[in-house]
Write a structure and sequence with these properties.
The complex is a heterodimer of chains A (about 350) and B (about 250). By secondary structure, chain A is an alpha/beta fold. Chain A folds into 2 domains: about 210 residues, 3-Layer(aba) Sandwich (Rossmann fold); about 110 residues, 3-Layer(aba) Sandwich (Rossmann fold). Chain A is about 40% helix and about 20% strand. Chain A contains 12 helices and 15 strands. Chain B is α/β, with parallel strands linked by helices. Chain B has one domain: Thiamin diphosphate (ThDP)-binding fold, Pyr/PP domains (Rossmann fold). Chain B has a 7-stranded mixed sheet, sandwiched between helices. Chain B is globular, with a radius of gyration of 17 Å. The chains are: A alpha/beta (about 350), B alpha/beta (about 250). Strand 9 of chain A pairs parallel with strand 2 of chain B.
């Protein structure tokens, strides 16, 4: 029986990693995720792990590369501008097929942007982010408990596919305190052996961790192999939650923090007689296309709400394939939309709110 | 029949792609000999750079990782922190280490990371076609300094070992040349010492190899060796710049 404790999102994510055997963390300070590395610097030595503050995000992600290649269960975290710096490394991790978990506690951009919650890194997160033809699974929690659960799962997904996995929170998830419980307790010795790791070629042929293929046919071969993994992820890893979509005339689509605000708006709309349902993507890659496609067949419209000026809405439109109108509503720069704004918009779009 | 020379076990039986007169092959062999002599083939992990030596991962009979340009010291840090009992070395050129990877090399040395760096200084970018490097000599003509490197425009060449010697975490720093057999022997000794420093866990170790690039220098192999001795050595003095153990342990 586990007990519930009150924790800040950033710290809870860190503890979740430790509870599933993560013993290596490399990071660099950036707001609003600073509690995460600070927690790791305190906790990892207690479990014979290693926390290291790198000289930059670029160095941190390359330390992750080395540690992952050496067979370690490893993690890093940052926020938007820092995640941009990590993209070179993430591309190499994907190309060299190395598992790791990367946490982005997203803030507003572009450039230095701000430090308040945002979802404007959706494109970067769901389209690979760096150079080349690759994807990373993206898990988007809406609560501190879900951040814990998804972080734990992220390590297993990373190992299963030998691919980096992104946990995409936002400043709200990172900074908010909520009761959480840790449902797993796994130590590194319980993890399966990584036979491909470079940990000294004792009694076997040397292992090579590498993304270079100078021959075009060989590079194409690697890419086709990677694509097979992404297809497998699309089959096995899609996660979403629905709320009241069975009889819904209007569908709201939102992820992360915004999904909670949308829930309040949907409850208010139901009270005034509007049949509103919610689809909440939990994995942003792979994207829950099918459930949105199905909903688009009978919905009068879909309204996508984001803390950006319209990024996930493109995936919603691709899924709806023009079967119903797909509208967008968003606030950005760290401004969080209010339930009342969403309700007003719903009424306006529905033509007066019957 | 008497055996007078053989391929070190740690060197793979693969024909190398290096140009005639290039000293990468010698340096590879020296690394493999040190690995053999210390009997650490099954405990060593090497890191191949971006550049001419990227295929180092095919040339050694050991576990290898390939790193992004300049990032090998960060990658090595990650490996060594997971596997502190193993031997880890990076193999980096001057564009890699002294240009794009300056932050990584300085901070690895600052932290006293317990791995060895093999630094190839041939005063030029080889793989990309002979562009100016931070280590290019003043007056040296390259693809991007066609009138010769001008100090007023591009600065003076970077002396890496002297720069790193300001950091107490750097336990062993040496610069060697490969322009004659005597110097090659000294180079091997320095390399062996750098691995021993790593074995003892004394801190960061780096050996800078003054190397040739006959193709991009536009010289015959022998002339290139002579150029190292006559043009590079006066600016890049040879010798052991730091040996923390011989100096009586770490400085406070």
């Amino acid at each position: 029986m586990t007990e519930k404790i009150l924790m800040k999102g950033n710290e809870a994510i860190a503890e979740a990693g430790i509870r599933v055997g993560c013993r290596y963390f490399f990071g660099y300070p950036i707001t609003p995720q600073n509690e995460l590395p600070a927690y790791m610097s305190r906790r990892l030595p207690e479990v014979q792990g290693t926390f290291l503050q790198a000289e930059s995000e670029v160095a941190a992600i390359n330390m992750v590369y080395g540690a992952a290649g050496a067979g370690g269960r490893v993690m890093t975290s940052s926020s938007s501008p820092g995640i941009s710096l990590k993209q070179e490394g993430i591309s190499y991790l994907a190309g060299s097929e190395l598992p790791c978990v990367i946490v982005n506690i997203t803030r507003g951009g572009p450039g230095l942007g701000g430090i308040q919650p945002a979802q404007s890194d959706y494109f970067q997160a769901t389209r690979g982010g760096g150079h080349g033809d690759y994807y990373t699974p993206v898990l988007a929690p809406q609560s501190v408990q879900e951040a814990v659960d998804l972080t734990m799962d992220a390590f297993d997904i990373a190992d299963k596919y030998r691919n980096p996995v992104l946990v995409l929170g936002d400043g709200m998830i990172g900074q908010m305190m909520e009761p959480v419980e840790f449902k797993k307790e796994i130590t590194p010795d319980q993890l399966p052996e990584k036979k491909w790791a470079t940990n000294g070629a004792a009694g076997r042929k040397p292992n090579i961790i590498n993304s270079l293929r100078l021959q075009p046919e060989k590079l194409e071969e690697l890419n086709l192999k990677l694509q097979e993994k992404y297809m497998a992820m699309k089959k096995a890893e899609v996660r979403y939650e629905t709320d009241n979509i069975e009889d819904a005339e209007y569908i709201l689509v939102a992820f992360g923090t915004t999904a909670r605000i949308v829930k309040s708006a949907a409850d208010m709309a139901r009270e005034v007689g509007m049949k509103v349902g919610i689809i909440r993507p939990i994995t942003l890659f792979p994207f829950p296309e099918d459930v949105i496609a199905k909903a688009s067949e009978k919905a009068r419209f879909i309204l996508t709400v984001e803390m950006s000026l319209g990024q996930m809405v493109e995936d919603v439109r691709l899924s709806a394939k023009g079967r119903c109108p797909v509208y967008f509503q968003g606030r950005t720069g760290g401004v969080v939309p209010k339930p009342g704004e969403i309700l007003d918009n719903l009424k306006r779009l529905a033509g007066g709110g019957k | 029949m008497k055996l007078v020379a053989k391929r070190p076990k740690a060197l793979a039986e693969k024909p190398m792609h290096y140009c005639p007169g290039c000293t990468h092959g010698i340096t590879h062999r020296l690394i493999a000999e040190v690995i053999d002599e210390m009997d650490i083939q099954e405990k060593t992990i090497g890191i191949a750079p971006v550049g001419c030596a990227v295929f180092a991962y095919d040339y050694f009979n050991i576990d290898m990782q390939q790193a992004a340009h300049g990032r090998a010291p960060a990658v090595a840090t990650g490996i060594k922190r997971v596997l502190p009992e193993n031997f880890v070395f990076t193999y980096q050129g001057d564009g890699d280490l002294a240009s794009i990877g300056t932050a990584e090399i300085v901070h690895a040395a600052m932290r006293g990371e317990k791995f060895t760096v093999v630094f190839i200084n041939n005063a030029i970018y080889g793989m990309t076609g002979g562009q100016m490097a931070p280590t290019t000599m003043v007056g040296q003509k390259t693809a991007t300094s066609p009138y010769g490197r001008e100090a007023a425009h591009a600065g003076y060449p970077m002396r890496v070992v002297e720069m790193l010697a300001t950091l107490p975490g750097a336990a062993y720093l040496a610069r060697v040349g490969l322009f004659n057999n005597r110097e090659i022997k000294k180079a091997k000794k320095a390399l062996r010492r750098s691995f021993e420093i790593q074995e003892k866990g004394l801190g960061f170790s780096l050996v800078e190899f003054l190397s040739t690039c006959p193709t991009n220098w536009g010289m015959a192999p022998l002339d290139a060796l002579k150029w190292v001795e006559e043009e590079m050595v006066p600016y890049y003095p040879l010798g052991v710049i730091r040996d923390i153990e011989e100096e009586g342990g770490p400085k406070k």
